[in-house]
Amino acid sequence: MTKKILTETPSATTEPVDTNIINPGRRNFLTAGAAGIAAASALPTLGFSAEEKSQAATEDGVKMDPAIGGPFDSLRDYMNAIKDQGLVFHVKRLDQDNYEMTALMYKLIDEYGWYDAPAIMADEVKINGEWVKGPIISNQQGPWETEAIVYGVANTPGEPEVTYRRAIKYLEGKIENGNYPTIAPVTVSAKDSPCKEIVLTGDECDLTKYAFIQSNPADSRRYINTGSIYTTDPEMGMNFGTYRCELRGPRLLGVNPEPNQTGWKMLMAAKERGEKTAKISIALGQDPITWIVSSSRVVNRITNRGPIDEHATVGGLRGKALELVKSETNDIMVPANSEMIIEGEVSLTETLPEGPFGEMYGYLGLQKSENFFMTVTAITHRKNPWIINQFTGATRGYCTGATAALYNTTLKGLIPGLVELHSPIESTGLTFVRIKKTKPGEGKKAGERLAKIIPIFKVVVVVDEDVDVMNTGEVGLAIGSRLQAETAVSIFTGRGMPLDPSSIERGKSGKLVIDATRQWPEEGGPASYPSMNRTLLEEQAPQSFELVSEQYNKYIKPGRKWRGPKRRV
Known about the structure:
Layout: E1 31-33, E2 36-38, H1 50-54, E3 57-59, E4 62-64, H2 75-84, E5 88-95, H3 100-112, E6 119-127, E7 130-138, H4 146-149, H5 160-172, E8 186-187, E9 198-201, E10 223-224, E11 228-233, E12 237-242, E13 245-249, E14 252-255, H6 262-272, E15 277-284, H7 288-295, H8 310-318, E16 323-326, E17 333-335, E18 340-347, E19 352-354, E20 368-381, E21 387-388, H9 401-410, E22 418-422, E23 430-435, H10 442-453, E24 459-464, H11 472-482, H12 485-488, E25 489-495, E26 508-515, H13 533-540, H14 543-555
Parallel strand pairs: 5-6, 7-21, 8-16, 23-24, 24-26
Antiparallel strand pairs: 1-2, 3-4, 6-7, 9-20, 10-13, 11-12, 11-15, 13-14, 14-20, 15-18, 16-17, 18-20, 19-20, 22-23, 25-26
Helix pairs in contact: 5-9
């Protein structure tokens, strides 16, 4: 199923651009021009045969594709797989002193949207006047197809929403009693651990030599922002989460868990016990499922309040045990197939200022007067480690399917009639909720309860079951045609995200619930609601769709290149 296109066009640095992009019926691509980043013309559509589409096994009714190779043991295996699927924009060099990689990422997002823009891989990046060897990668879990690829679920070329829902179905099938299955990790030796190919300790360590970049000119410094930060606590156990780390020197690194995140709680608990330092490890270039667990709420913490083995959750989602190896200068176990491990000691008696930094909402975050920092004691890594940078607030950070499936499953017990939720990742704070409404007032109550439970749900729009929550056009039409604001809107204050730039008091936020379901007469709606035009067509003339399906290819003249509008999901 692999089709590759190789194009060589002079870049701003006179190096060729190696662009491996498949256009599966909808995607075009950009190349770097002599004056910088410029749009390229559309390429012919590369189709997939019916035979290719059918070459997939099934697991519990969900199409699987063994040829994809997932779940993956390493970042490299995963990147090769998405490159084979045409989802990687590969360029030789990018001048980050002039923020070329940042601008390229924005350009791709502008052209194709958050769910269609490919990953970027640059072999070298210019930092402080020098070309630093990578590769450096971004948006590796941005394209919607990656939601399926990470688990080995089959794609439907040209229909990313179908692919996403197939991945959701696969994940929902794994959940039992509100939890994903677990498979305990296994320990491997250092000699069998790729992350131990190079071992540096003490003054041998110099983080400034690697391809960690400053994403935005307003950021305070270069950042390491895709690490899984490992912390431990006698009562809370082990935890890893993704927190940004400000690169302050060869062996000096900021560590920024936000208040009330598990890493913050563990460091504060150690401080309260009178400890002077806390040992931590940071895993970089993780396998894709470890990255998902590190970056999102995959573990159900409503029903699991004690110590949680997140490595076992990774194993359960992978369907096989995660391989771990002991850190060099502490007892923390880390993923053996990582690209790099950074070890160190966090001071619990001193702090340093941190930031500002471009945040997940797409706004520059505030500078912090006090922040944890660590002194690096060891760096171990693969030969020529692959580095990931997250353009926070500009791209999808991780595959959201595992969290969505968990929400869809566990929240159904709390929200009557819940069908599914969708939070557009490019619109942080906005959530669409689809319900099967059975009585008056149910829509607004559902939205209010969700907004109170989940801090990031700031604006909640509730729609009927006939509305596709992954289609912003349909949601917008429901708001425009079904909402009566004087009776179907609720505004209150609740728990919010500390990074919300509009919050006056961090951790609190105004909440807006919009009930865009059909308002029943008991809610002040009309005595009867007219049917939608498309619904009437589907009910009264179903043969029209069958006819078009049969004749569709004949409508497109042979050789005609059809682009269609840009997708804006």
